[in-house]
Amino acid sequence: MSLSDSKNILVCVDAEQFLSNDTFNQACATALKQDAKLFITTIVDPKPYAPMSRFDSKIVERAGQQASETLQMYKQKAEKKGISDPETILDVGTPQVRITRHIAPNYNIDLIIAGETVGKRAERVLTGSISKGIAKRAACEVNIVKSTGEVVTKV
Questions:
Q1: What domains lie within the chain, and their CATH numbers?
Q2: pLDDT for the residue numbered 61
Q3: What is the pLDDT of residue 58?
Q4: DSSP letter string over the chain?
Q5: How far apart are CA 20 and CA 24, in angstroms?
Q6: Does residue 58 contact residue 18 with C-beta atoms inside 8 Å?
Q7: Interior CA angle at 113 toward 107 and 119, to 5°?
Q8: Which residues 6+ apart lie within 8 Å of 10 measured at CB?
Q9: Pfam families, per this entry (predicted)?
Q10: Whole-angstrom distance, CA of residue 65 vs CA of residue 78
């Protein structure tokens, strides 16, 4: 499927660190150009919180609340850019798996846009880049926006 065929675009955001404006701007511009529906997602991965949950049983719940607030902020930004009715998706689990095996198929996503730096540096060392994991597993086109603003496409 080519970029011009995209009707359902998913942009991945991280609730704990703001992705580069280039990634979000790229997603919004593409959605507007293609007259596509924009979905904004973040995935709360409970694994990094496991050691702390012994001391704070509500830590994952708070992470979910923070993620929800982040999604609403991005939704408002998208609306200000002229995106009509952007939809937010909050999920829990391993980001690469939830995005490629659950969200993309359930929402008929045909283009995923993710930032190169999504995820924590220590986590990337252990599990690899989340964006690269999405690109490797996705059945649809994936655009990875590098920190330089360059877009790398995996079809």
A1: 3-154 (3.40.50.12370)
A2: 80
A3: 79
A4: --GGG--EEEEE--SSSPPPHHHHHHHHHHHHHHT-EEEEEEEE-SGGGHHHHTT-TTHHHHHHHHHHHHHHHHHHHHHHTT-SS-EEEEEES-HHHIIIIIIHHHTT--EEEEETT-S-HHHHHHH--HHHHHHHH-SSEEEEE-TTS-EEEE-
A5: 7
A6: no
A7: 105
A8: 39, 40, 41, 89, 99, 103, 104, 107, 109, 111, 112, 113
A9: Usp (PF00582)
A10: 20
If the chain, 155 residues long, is cut into consecutive pieces of 10 residues, what is the mean pLDDT of each piece? 73 70 89 96 79 70 87 95 96 92 97 74 54 90 81 70
Interacting residues of 56 by C-beta distance below 8 A, sequence separation 6+:
none
pLDDT at 15: 66
Q: How far apart are CA 7 and CA 116, in angstroms?
A: 23
**Which one, of 151, 135, 155, lies nearest residue 27 by Cα?**
151
pLDDT value for 123: 47
Task: Supply the pLDDT for residue 29.
Answer: 94
Determine the residue type at 51.
P
